[in-house]
Amino acid sequence: MTVEGQSHDRDRSLRARVEDLAERRFIPLVATSIALGVVFRLLLVWTTTSPSDTLNHLYPGFTDGVEYLDNARSLVDTGVYGYAGRPSAFRPPAYPFFMALSLRILGDSLTPVRVMQIGMSVAMTLLYLGVTAWYFGRTAGILVAVFLSLYPLFAFMTTEIATESLYMLLAAVAFVLTLVLLETGIHPRRRTWLAFLAGLICGAGTLTRPNMFFVFVMLLAWIVVGGLWTRKGWRAWLLPALGLAIGTYVVLIPWMIRNERRFGAPVITTNLYYNFFRGTFDLVDGNPQGASIFDIFRDHHVVYEAEVENVCVRRLSLGELESERNAREAALSIIRADPGGWIWQRLKNAAYLWLNLQWDSDILRSGTVVRFAAISVTLVYYALLLGGLLGSVSLWRSLRESRPRMFVAAAWSYMAAATPTVLTFVGKRYRVSMIDPYLVLLACAGLAGWLRRWRRDR
């Protein structure tokens, strides 16, 4: 046998051993991966955070942790969601309510919040590895467990006082339920209850980040179109669609009623058009108007967030709802003046979101560790993006069954739900929490499929 042939056989033997190990040692390998991830996160919490500070000391970044903490303390101290007893709907309430529960039961330290976020990360990992193993085998499940446990940005997010950890867990539950709902052969009554549960998750996710409402709309469309396509009768789609809608609004309606009574409109949050307006001039390459951002908000009669979220302000210069209406009118006026320019900036936002082009110049002036970490995670993301694309193509072409293709379509649909963020302004956190997990699933499933085909061709 030639040297080349011996090398080829060794490669095949190695791939076979990897698959055999995954089949025989699935639970120990998963447990080890998750344990390493937990230790990694605990070390980050211990070395880069403090119990009283919302920011990560290694790299503070851009986080709204202080504002969420103010919301939570207002709930604990006054029983009013807002800022030091002043009612507000500027931020969705789910994450501050979670923080308030921790502050009430476990004291004023933020460490329990971060530890619970590690628990959320573990739960998310278990959900994703389980559903991936169910569709593509144990090798894919183990790869997902390793990547989700040790992916640097996921670990970093657990140290931040931010909505990402809660949103990512809720999105994982919604993703698993989506795949179950799209399975054929489920009794309409069971499908309806599963849809109701998915609706509860979509409602809670919307109160964490309004982007989850797009997941609700997407899932509702899939249920209706899928039911009509299979021609199994109206029960196959109408009852689950009603279950999904009822579940979602069971969660949303109490909050909307509160806002109707407090502010005069059943809104979910009063910063949607605020962010939409800000996105018309706070562009990825700077503010072309050259004016101060404070002056722009003042000139358009929109209350800037520094005033809204100032706990010392007892009464705003303009009501949140009226400010939101002004923001809508100002945004539409700016867009009508230059629709082509606005569309071009949205395309640039999409490129920045997907290609990780939004770099804070402070990073380059930071210490060596921060610069190295920033460059490393960017390179890892590019590898992940390439792996997700190649994995999607590989799975779609090699697996002719409808179930694996349904998994690929669902993953890309969930990533598409992040796209509306480009209508405002771009932040890395949107990508990390709403795109990266599904790239991990597709890359790992594609790699596992490649290993399986090599073994089969031996």
Structural account:
The protein is mainly alpha-helical and 458 residues long. The chain has one domain. It has 21 helices and two strands. Strands 1-2 form a two-stranded antiparallel sheet. Strand 1 and strand 2 form a beta hairpin. The longest helix is centred in the C-terminal third of the chain and has 31 residues. The radius of gyration is 24 Å and the shape is globular.
Structural class: mainly alpha
Percent range for β-strand residues: under 5%
Count of domains: 1
- SSE topology string: HHHEEHHHHHHHHHHHHHHHHHH
Structural features:
single chain; 458 residues; mainly alpha; two-stranded antiparallel sheet; 21 helices; 2 strands; 1% strand; globular
Secondary structure elements and their pairing?
Elements (H helix, E strand, L loop, with lengths): L2 H22 L1 H23 L16 H14 L3 E2 L2 E2 L6 H13 L4 H26 L1 H13 L1 H6 L6 H18 L6 H19 L5 H19 L7 H26 L8 H7 L14 H7 L5 H4 L11 H18 L1 H17 L5 H4 L3 H31 L3 H15 L11 H7 L1 H21 L2
Antiparallel strand pairs: 1-2
In short:
The chain has helices at 3-24, 26-48, 65-78, 94-106, 111-136, 138-150, 152-157, 164-181, 188-206, 212-230, 238-263, 272-278, 293-299, 305-308, 320-337, 339-355, 361-364, 368-398, 402-416, 428-434, 436-456, and strands spanning 82-83, 86-87. The chain has 458 residues and is mainly α.
